[in-house]
Write a structure and sequence with these properties.
- The chain is an alpha/beta fold.
- Helices cover 25% and strands 26% of the residues.
- It has one domain: Purple Acid Phosphatase, chain A, domain 2 (4-Layer Sandwich).
- The protein has six helices and 13 strands.
- The longest helix has 18 residues.
Length: 256
């Protein structure tokens, strides 16, 4: 089984990269599934039903989320619906949506970290519970949406051998540490993003500089011009063992 996991989609530029490149990559890489993080797809913060449909039509199979999953109030109803859209599973039980998706071949889980983030439910205990509740032994891949590299790496080691893959999202900066952990879990600290290259984690440069230089609250619109990064990782899984046999970065640049 070959699965492409795509980093945070940031605004219109990121969506353009996904819509343009994913159909090509599905055929070029003989992909079985594409999973993408869409929590920043709507103007850099949250997402909408219209955007979800656009991404699913572009041959993305499952969309994951994070701390911005709740940014668009009207989207909460979509999270409670039947579309393959996740939010982190370790939000309190009263939050809309779900953190796990399955079909007859694959399970996708979405959890969120706590270091430098909201003090939510423990993701380590959360993944233990989710894995105990799984009815079968099919492969599991996890989008762990977290800020701290140490927490992401700790999470990978925590589930090594129990899931096929763990990929980090949230920082929008791709890391170069794709590897197989000793017991067969594919891991990368952060996938990176799909967003404007000539920007600061996808946002226009000038407003970000203003915030850092003045300390004042500043709106940070996504950059829409120039080349666009497409950051992802390909995980190959042996379905007889439900463990990974390979992981590699798949990064592209979509010219303006």
């Amino acid at each position: 089984m070959r699965i492409l996991l795509v980093g945070d989609i940031v605004g219109r530029a990121g969506r353009r990269a996904v819509v343009t490149l994913v159909p090509r990559l599905r055929r070029e890489l003989s992909l079985d599934y594409v999973i993408a993080n869409a929590e920043n797809a709507a103007a850099g913060r949250g997402t909408t039903l219209k955007i979800v449909r656009e991404l699913l039509e572009a041959e993305v199979d499952v969309l994951t989320g994070g701390n911005h999953s709740w940014a668009v109030d009207a989207f909460h109803e979509t999270l409670d619906g039947d579309l393959p859209v996740l939010r982190p599973a370790n939000y309190p039980s009263g939050a809309p949506g779900r953190g796990i998706w399955s079909d007859d071949r694959l399970t996708v889980m979405n959890l969120i970290g706590r270091t430098f983030m909201q003090p939510l439910d423990d993701p380590f205990a959360g993944i233990d519970r989710l894995l105990e509740e799984l009815p079968g032994a099919q492969p599991v891949v996890v989008d762990f949406h977290a800020e701290a590299t140490s927490e992401k790496q700790a999470f990978g080691w925590h589930v090594d051998g129990r899931v096929a893959g763990v990929v980090g999202t949230h920082t929008h900066v791709a890391t170069a540490d794709t590897r197989l952990l000793p017991n067969g879990t594919a891991f990368v600290t952060d996938l990176g993003m799909c967003g404007a290259r000539d920007a600061i984690i996808g946002s226009e440069v000038a407003p970000v500089l203003k915030r850092f230089r003045t300390g004042l609250p500043t709106r940070l619109p996504p950059e829409t011009k120039g080349p666009v990064l497409f950051s992802s990782a390909l995980i190959e899984i042996d379905e007889t063992t439900s463990r990974a046999v390979g992981i590699e970065r798949v990064d592209r640049l979509l010219e303006a």
